[in-house]
């Protein structure tokens, strides 16, 4: 908007990255969500809400594991981005966070625009359908869902299977940097009355 830089300096382009050594594109392509508008606000709200709920929920006291999820998801998306025609991967990253949260909170009921009521695991698919109705490509949503599912399977499902084990292990260097020695016993997370953001993503836990 300020025209200090242009999207052409930020987008994901393997040729410019690997042949012209514009390494910053590996990161900047996740930071651009388009001009300020509905899609931009949509992504900002969901990115903030679900990133925060994961950090204060299943990743509480596990900052290094949280950072490792970011790095693992970003690596896979970048790898898959070599084979799909996507120039910005930020929205796919948001969908990945939504997917991981939704699978870890399967009993939360969601309310989408007051029209649909469904369980949390269906939220990424509802968002993909909504994106399709807006005329957007669903490839970015499918990429986020795929990467989120790979992470969830390797972290939450496979270790609990017969013969399974932890394939994803947070490097000790990340633990040394991000994990604190003790957790504050007096800390209370802020209440999440509307996990989906606003009325179109409101959640309520069953039996609560």
Largest sheet: 3 strands, antiparallel
How large a portion of the residues is in β-strands, by DSSP E? 5-15%
What does the average pLDDT come to?
Answer: 83
Question: How many individual helices?
Answer: 8
How many beta-strand elements? 3
Overall 3D shape:
globular
State the assembly state of the protein chains.
single chain
Count structural domains: 1
Low-confidence stretches: 192-202, 204-208
Structural class: mainly alpha
Distance between the termini: 44 Å
Helix content: 40-55%
- What is the element string, with H for helices and E for strands? HHHHHEEHHHE
Strand order, largest beta sheet:
2-1-3
Radius of gyration, rounded? 18 Å
Write the layout of secondary structure elements.
Layout (H helix, E strand, L loop, with lengths): L13 H5 L6 H4 L9 H19 L6 H19 L8 H15 L3 E5 L3 E4 L3 H11 L5 H19 L14 H7 L23 E4 L3
Helix pairs in contact: 3-5, 4-7, 4-8, 5-7
Could you describe the 3D structure shown?
The relative contact order is 0.15. This protein is mainly α. The protein is globular and about 45 Å long. It is built from 8 helices and 3 strands. The chain has one domain (about 20-180). The chain has helices spanning about 15-20, 25-30, 40-55, 65-80, 90-105, 125-135, 140-155, 170-180; strands at about 110, 115-120, 200-205. Strands 2-1-3 form a 3-stranded antiparallel sheet, with no helix packed on it. The termini are far apart.
């Amino acid at each position: 908007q300020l025209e200090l830089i242009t999207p052409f300096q930020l987008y994901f382009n393997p040729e410019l990255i690997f042949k012209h050594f514009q390494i910053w594109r590996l990161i900047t392509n996740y930071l651009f969500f388009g001009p300020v508008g509905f899609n931009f606000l949509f992504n900002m709200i969901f990115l903030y809400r679900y990133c925060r709920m994961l950090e204060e929920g299943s990743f509480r006291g596990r900052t290094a594991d949280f950072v490792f999820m970011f790095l693992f998801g970003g690596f896979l998306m970048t790898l898959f981005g070599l084979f799909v025609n996507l120039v910005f991967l930020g929205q796919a990253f948001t969908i990945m966070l939504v997917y991981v949260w939704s699978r870890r909170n399967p009993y939360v009921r969601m309310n989408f625009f007051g029209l649909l009521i469904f369980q949390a695991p269906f939220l990424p698919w509802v968002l993909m359908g909504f994106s399709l109705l807006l005329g957007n490509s669903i490839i970015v949503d499918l990429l986020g869902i795929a990467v989120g599912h790979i992470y969830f399977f390797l972290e939450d499902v496979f270790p609990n299977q017969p013969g399974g084990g932890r394939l994803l292990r947070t490097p000790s260097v990340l633990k040394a940097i991000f994990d604190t020695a003790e957790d504050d016993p007096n800390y209370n997370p802020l209440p999440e009355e509307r996990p989906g953001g606003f009325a179109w993503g409101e959640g309520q836990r069953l039996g609560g």
